[in-house]
Amino acid sequence: MADLKLEGVAKSYGDVQVLSDIDLTIASGEFIVFVGPSGCGKSTLLRMIAGLERISGGTLQIDGQRMNDIPPSQRGIAMVFQSYALYPHMTVRDNMAFALKIAGQSRDQIREATDRAGKMLQLTPYLDRLPKALSGGQRQRVAIGRAIVRDPKVYLFDEPLSNLDAALRVATRIEIAQLKASMPDRTMIYVTHDQTEAMTLADRIVVLAGGGIAQVGAPLELYERPVNEFVAQFIGSPAMNLLPGKVTAVGDMTTVALDGGGVAQVAIPTREGDQGMAVNLGVRPEDMRETDGDAIFEGQVDLTEALGEVTLLYFGTNQDSVPVIAKLPGIHTGLNGKTVRLTADPHALHLFHDGQSLLYRDGADLPPYRPRTTAAAGSVGGADGAASMPGRSDTGDDRIEGGTIKPEGPAR
Amino acid sequence: MELFWLAISTIAIGVFGCVAWFWGSNMVLDTIYPPKGPNAGDNIRKANQIRPWLFLGPAILFLTMYLVYPVIDSLWRSLHNSTGSRFVGVDNYTWLLGDGKFRESMRNNMLWLLVVPALSTLFGLIAAQLTDRIRWGNIGKSLIFMPMAISFVGAGVIWKFIYEFRAEGETQIGLLNWIVTRLGGDPQIWLTLIPWNNFFLMIVLVWIQTGFAMVILSAALRGIPEETIEAAILDGASPLQVFMKIKVPQIMGTIAVVWTTITIVVLKVFDIVFVMTNGQWGTQVLANLMYDWMFRGSPDYGRGSAIAIVLMILVTPIMVWNIRNARKEVR
C-alpha cells in the first residue's frame, strides 16, 4: 500500500536536461506503465524512483514521505532488472534470501519466505541451482522472486521481458499480470518499449517523450483519445496514418477535404472560424475499410502483407512521404497494383492541428473516458453531450455500413 | 660511440634478419609449391601444412636452446658430482635433505609463499576498489603501479636504504630508523633481526607486486555487471557488503590467477635477497642458495643443479594450474 507523488521531477546530467517537470500521481495498488521511444528517459525516471539515480529537481513522495534523499533500500521498493541482475555466485535460494540476510532476519524466517516465493513462481525444484543453470524465463522468475520475498510496497520493473524470446515473453507477461492480481494493494511501475505489454498490463500508461510526459491515461483512452500526433502514432501498430487536409465545414461534425483528394466526415466538433484550417486527419489502419462510396483515401496498393487474421495494404511506399497503411480484417488476395478506395467510421477519426488533437484544445476538461465498445450502449457522450463534449458518440448503426457488419471496432 | 654503433647494427641486423627470414622462407615455399598451375589446390594444401612451422621455427629453436636444453642438462648435472665427471645417483638430493641451509631456504620460501601473494593480492584488491571511483584515482593507480617498472635489484637497493642503519652518534639516514628515532625509539639493524628480517624482505616484493594485482583486479572489478551491484544496493547491502559479498565472489577466478602468478614470482625470488642480505641472518631462499652452490667459492654444479630441479618441481604444478585458470577466465 503506497501511493507515489512526483512533483516537478527533473533529471539532468551536467548541462543536458533529460527529464523536466514530471508531475505524476500514482495511486496505491495501481499498475502503471511507462512507455516511450528509446532515450525518452523512462528508465531514468524509474531509476530515480528506485534511488539509483539522483533526482536533480522536484520531489518524490512515497506514502506522503519525501524520498529524494532516502537510500534505495529504505524506500520500500524492489526492482526487477532487464538483465535479471542475479548474483551469479549464489544459488536461487541465496539470491532470494540476500536482502533478508542483510536485514538480519532469522534463518527460519528466510527459509519460509524463500520457500513460499519458490512455490509461487514454480521455482521449488531449482532452489539449489546457480543462475547459470537456469533458462532465461526461470532467471527472470528468480529476479521477480527476489522482489517478492522482500514484500515491498512498490514493485519496479525495468523492461523485464526484453531479454526473453517471444513465446516466453507472452507467458511471463501473463505471470506478471497474475502476480499483480494476487497482490491488489501493491503498486507496480513497469517500464517497457513494447506497447503490447503496456496495453495489456497497465491500469494507466504514461507516455514519455521529449523529456516530459506526453499523456497519461488508461490504455484504451490513449488509443482512442490521443492528445497529440506523437501519442497517436506511438500507440497502435501499425502507426496511425496522418493525412493532411483542410477543414471545409464546421459544426458537431467536421468536414475535411484531404490534400489527397478524399473527403472525410469527422465526429469532432469545430467552431466558426476553423474554416480553412490546415489539419492532419488521423486514421488508424485497422479502422479503414473498403468502400464504393465517398472515400477518404484512394490509392494504388504497392504491397500487401497477408497475415491470415488481417491483411496489411501499403500505399505510396516508393515515394518520399510516409506510406499509408490499411489493415483489413481477413484474407484479401489479388489487391497488389489495384486501386482501392478506403473510408472509416467518423467516430474513429482524429483531427490534429499543429500536432495537437482538436479534441483537447479547450483544455483537458473532457468527461471521464469510457471505452467505445462495439456494442454501442453506454458510450461516451451521447446525443446530449455532443455540444460540450467533443467525444465520440457511438450509435449502433455506425457499425453497420452497406449491409456489412464491421467485425471489429476500434476498441478491442 | 663504437658501442653505440655496435648496438644499432645489432638491432638492425636482428630486425632485418627477422623480416628476411619470414619473407624469404615464405617465398621459397611458394616457389616450391606455387599456388597456381594445374596442381594449385594440392600445392596450397601442402604449403599450408608447412607454413606454420616457418613462423614457429625460430621460436621453437630458441626455446629448445635456452629452455629445454638447460632443463635436461640440469637434470643430468644434478645426478653427477661437483664437476660433472662422475655419476652419483641421488646423492645430491639426499645431501639436500640433510643440509641445514636447504631446510632454512625451504622454510623461508614457504613463508614467502604464504605472505607475499596474500598481501599483494589483498592490497591490490583494496587499491583497485578504492581508486576506482575517485577523481585522482588514476594518479594513485599510476603511483601504486610504478614499482612494477623498477627492477628487483633496484627495488632491493632502494629498500636497503630504507632499512639503513648507522652506528650510534651518527645521523640515521635510513627512513625507518629516522622514524623510529623521531618517535623516541632506538635505531635497529633491521636486516639482522631474526626472524623479522624475512618479512622486511617480503615487503619489498609486496610493494612491487601490489601494482600488478591492482591493475588486473581493477579491470576485473569493472567487468562486473553494474546491475548486480545496483540490485545489491536495493537489497540494502552496505558498500562493504556489496564489495565482500557481491564483487569479490564474482572476480574469484581473477583473484586466483593473480594469486598464482605472484606465487610463481615468489618461488623464484632471488634478486631481492641477493642484494639485501645475500641469505645471511636466516633469510636464505632456494634461488639464492642455488646461486651460491653454482657460482660461489668452489662451485658444485651437482648440488646447485639439484636445488634448481627442486625449484622447478615446486613451480610446475602452480604454473599448470595458473594457465588453466587463466584460460578459464578468457572463456
**CATH superfamily label of the largest domain in chain B:** MetI-like
Q: Tell me the name of the CATH homologous superfamily of the largest domain in chain A.
A: P-loop containing nucleotide triphosphate hydrolases
Q: Structural class, judged by helices and strands of chain A?
A: alpha+beta
CA-CA gap between termini of chain A: 31 Å
Work out the oligomeric state of the chains in this entry: heterodimer
The number of domains of chain B is 2
Total count of strands of chain B = 0
Largest interface: pair, residues per side:
A-B, 25 and 17 residues
- The fraction of residues assigned to DSSP E strands of chain A is 25-35%
The 3D shape of chain A can be described as elongated
Secondary structure tally, helices of chain A: 8
Strand tally of chain A: 23
Low-confidence stretches of chain B: none
Major β-sheet profile of chain B = none
Class by alpha and beta content of chain B: mainly alpha
Fold-level CATH name of the largest domain in chain A: Rossmann fold
Tell me the distance between the termini of chain B: 51 Å
Helix count, DSSP H or I runs of 4 or more residues of chain B = 14
Order of adjacent strands in the largest pleated sheet of chain A: 6-7-8-3-9-10
Rg over C-alpha atoms of chain B, rounded to the nearest angstrom: 26 Å
CATH architecture name of the largest domain in chain A? 3-Layer(aba) Sandwich
Family (chain B): Belongs to the binding-protein-dependent transport system permease family.
Transmembrane segments (chain B): 6-24, 53-72, 110-131, 143-162, 199-221, 254-281, 301-323
Membrane topology (chain B): Multi-pass membrane protein
InterPro entries (chain B): MetI-like (IPR000515), MetI-like_sf (IPR035906), UgpAE/MalFG_permease (IPR050809)
Characterise this structure.
The complex is a heterodimer of chains A (about 400) and B (about 325). Chain A is of the alpha+beta class. Chain A folds into 2 domains: about 5-230, Rossmann fold (3-Layer(aba) Sandwich); about 230-405, no CATH class. In chain A, about 20% of the residues lie in helices and about 30% in strands. Chain A has helices at about 40-50, 90-100, 105-120, 135-150, 165-180, 195-200, 220-225, 230-235, and strands spanning about 5-15, 15-25, 30-35, 55-60, 65, 75-80, 155-160, 185-190, 205-210, 210-215, 240-250, 255-260, 265, 280-285, 290, 295-305, 310-315, 325-330, 340-345, 350-355, 355, 400, 405. Chain A has a 6-stranded mixed β-sheet, with helices on both faces. Chain B is mainly alpha-helical. Chain B folds into 2 domains: about 1-80; about 100-330, MetI-like (MetI-like fold). Chain B has helices spanning about 1-30, 40-80, 90-100, 100-130, 135-145, 150-160, 175-180, 195-220, 225-235, 240-250, 250-265, 270-275, 285-295, 300-330. In chain B, helix 3 crosses helix 14, helix 8 packs antiparallel against helix 11 and helix 11 runs antiparallel to helix 14 (about 300-330). The longest helix of chain B has about 40 residues, at about 40-80. Chain B is globular, with a radius of gyration of 26 Å. In chain B, about 30% of the residues are buried. Chains A and B meet through strand 6 and helix 2 of A and helix 9 and helix 10 of B.
